[in-house]
Amino acid sequence: MFTMGIDIGSSSSKVVILEDGVNIIAGEVIQIGTGSTGPKRVLDEALSKAGLTLQDMAKIIATGYGRSSVEEAHKQISEISCQAKGVFFLVPSAKIIIDIGGQDVKAIRLDSKGGVKQFFMNDKCAAGTGRFLDVMSRVLEVNLDEMAEYDSRATEPATVSSTCTVFAESEVISQLSNGVAKENIIAGVHQSVASKACGLAYRCGVEEDIVMCGGVAKDLGVVRAISKELKKPVIVAPNPQITAALGAAIFAFEEVIGANK
Amino acid sequence: MSRIESIISELSSISNNPKKAMEDYKKETGKGSVGVMPYYAPEEIIHAAGFLPVGIWGGQKSISKARAYLPPFACSIMQSVMEMQLEGVYDDLEAVLFPVPCDTLKCLSQKWKGTSPVIVFTHPQNRKLEAANKFLAEEYRLVREKLEKILSVQISDEALNNSIEIYNENRKVMREFTDIAANYPNIIDPIKRHAIIKARFFMEKSKHTAMVKELNSELIALPVEAFTGKKVVLTGIMAEPNEVLDILKDNGFAVVADDLAQESRLFRNDVPSGTDPLYRLAKWWQEFDGCSLAVDTKKSRGPMLMDMVKVYKADAVVVCMMKFCDPEEFDYPIYYRQFEEAGIKSLFIEIDLETTSFEQTKTRVQSFSEML
Ligand code: SF4
């Protein structure tokens, strides 16, 4: 039996097709999100990769910021519940999840069965989110996927505000014009993202294992900065961008077999 | 339309249209209205003068002109109040009563941009001393004196004691209403509950009391309904705009009790008995606890909220955090820790009167309902 999870975020679209609730047949990501062609394209891509059609899906659940606009879905579940489900499936020892996406940062505390015990989300400011890193990568003229490498060469991380993207951007510009090395600025940017996320994690109560997911988890500079701030190891979920879509596909499977509480 | 529906619809339309309520009052009595800024002003003094006290709580609004006078980190209630001052919205008021229990209010009280005269007074924060009562009674004496001058009326002790009784009666009926409403969540949804309570700010209190009393008796005549959703207690300054309450409703939440500064905090205590009305009003402030704006060395807010959860069999507390409200933000970590220790579930949502996008609130509320 096949089930599907569709996660439409603010800046990317993800689909997971699951067989019998355990085998990931397809897990696709397209880097544009709600309101774009992304959702349709990623759906087509996942189906063609799996060699299946929508009719083959026993149930489809949508999640993410754009969850209510997915016509193909039979149901919507919030991304917090889906992240918890997906991450717990991949890392059953997870206690705290730090999820940094395009416009949201979330810290989620799990109970021993993987259920959500508490969660906190960022306020509306983009500071500390994927969008914040986008802005910084543009100002610094360094590709997002090169940021971690730059960070690893930093000698003295610069200080970058963690409260406001606009302040942070002007801080970065003035540091650039003062000749501060990009490596050090990028390490500062990563620290700023980390301090925002860790603020939420502290509210949840920090407990190992700590697992990171969401698009920003691919930036190892951020992962290192979070680990340093929390003084604890941080596990990056395998394929961290698709964990919420995976969770949605698992929920869909559980609903079909009636395993839900 | 049933009597219940018609009372609710009348109160809702009053709460949505304060301007009309003021005009109607003027037509009826020939007297005008006096604005009452948050929090805990002695409205009874205005009532005793025969004028209509009108609550000023800002509104959902985009802010532009106010930016010239307030920093971006001032709470959105005061941003919107300032914006409306600059638009002349409050200029029909005969006067404005202006307590200053937080820094934002203190600063704002010194830059009122409307044309109405403003009467500023202070609540003492060292509240548990007898001297605090004397100080506040004296503040209220000055408020009365200024109002008498501005409104060209005499406000006798007798009239004031009478108004206090009218207000106490309203407080009692409102406590009964919130208790009764908790048993009829399908009829009194979060939006209606809020509108019924909010109408208090724009009506002569004995009229409001009579309508709510009637509503209460109509409600209790009905069988208590089964409710399949979740029950919550709200805490914070306010739970506006209505979109927030809509999201709670859409996700199957009923509000069974609240600790909002705009709602139950105003009527959970009566003004104590006595002969000197100003002293009685002052004493109310001394006895009032569990609010971020009134120094509370015992930190009773958390235990009080936990009691409410128990009494009303609520599933959780929803913290309606007014963005940039420092008194409320300072209280939060204290009661949050108490909740954690006691295993009380809570949800933190952000209240911002300026916002028009509620996606984040939706996600938080939906996740929370899935979590419970
Ligand atoms: S108490 Fe909070 S919300 Fe109210 S005026 Fe002061 S800062 Fe604003």
UniProtKB/TrEMBL annotation, chain B:
Its cofactor is [4Fe-4S] cluster. Keywords: Iron, Iron-sulfur, Metal-binding. The keyword Metal-binding applies. InterPro entries: FldB/FldC_alpha/beta. It holds the Pfam family HGD-D. Gene3D superfamilies: 1.20.1270.370, 3.40.50.11890, 3.40.50.11900. It comes from the Bacteria. Belongs to the FldB/FldC dehydratase alpha/beta subunit family. This is 2-hydroxyacyl-CoA dehydratase family protein. It comes from Desulfosporosinus nitroreducens.
